[in-house]
Predict the 3D structure of the following.
Amino acid sequence: MSWFSFHGGHSGQFCAHAKGTLREVVERAIALGFTHYGLSEHAPRFRDVDLYPGEEALGTTGLERAFQAYVAEAIALRSEYGDRIELLIGFETETLPPVIWPDTMRRLREENPFDYMVGSVHDIDGRWVDFSRAETERLKADLGGPEALHLAWFQQMTAMVEALRPEVVGHIDLIRKFEPRGFAFGPRALLAAERLLEAVRATGGVLDLNCAPVRNGYGAAYPQPALLDMAERMGVGVTLGDDSHGPETVGVGLEASLAAAATAGYRSIQCLSAKRGWETVPIERVSRP
Ligand SMILES: [Zn+2]
Ligand SMILES: [Zn+2]
């Protein structure tokens, strides 16, 4: 049996909006019987205007220092616990700073011994889409309405996938975080989503089946059923991501992700190994022990 997550492992040690230490996160993953666990701390931000709330005291220099400390601690924990769990060390991207993010993210990847990357977008034109309903509504109005927002989102995701070719493609419909349950994208947005999925397939990426919305009351796992059905029909693989932000959220909600994959018709889930790359695991072999 395999039990794994490749998006998460944020900790309060290196991320101002997470809790606990990285060691506590890893020990929790071991206690829960994870066979593989991916650590994907947020990329630092390089401009003051791109700091997350709560990072003001750290500043961009403090963030870069914390990111390097994260990598060093993750490597140390991997050697310490390597006989009990396969830890994979990665990071979660931003499309920031605007325009120059492809080079910035590639440089982060090249300068560190990462096993993989979670390609994520959290902004459109430097404006956060996942912090508050009010901010996202303002962005929607400024861009000219919901369809314009959704098209801009899927275009930005597609550009990120094509530029960075991430192993894991993070929360592809994060943009609907604040929409009501059962929210459906319009036909043009769905076409843009299809283009994104074509890019994921072409670059060999795998979708992050991310249970954070289930845990936090924002509806179905990302991607929502309509997009997951489309991905399954197109032959795009999925993996599991708990998007944990501390030891108490490790693994919480992953069964919902697994159930969503089965409902969409997936017969297998992709599991990442540092040595062997993506491995296809029959869905009945993926289970919490
Ligand atoms: Zn986070
Ligand atoms: Zn994210």
About this structure: The chain has a mean pLDDT of 97. The radius of gyration is 18 Å. The domain at 4-285 is CATH 3.20.20.140 (TIM Barrel).
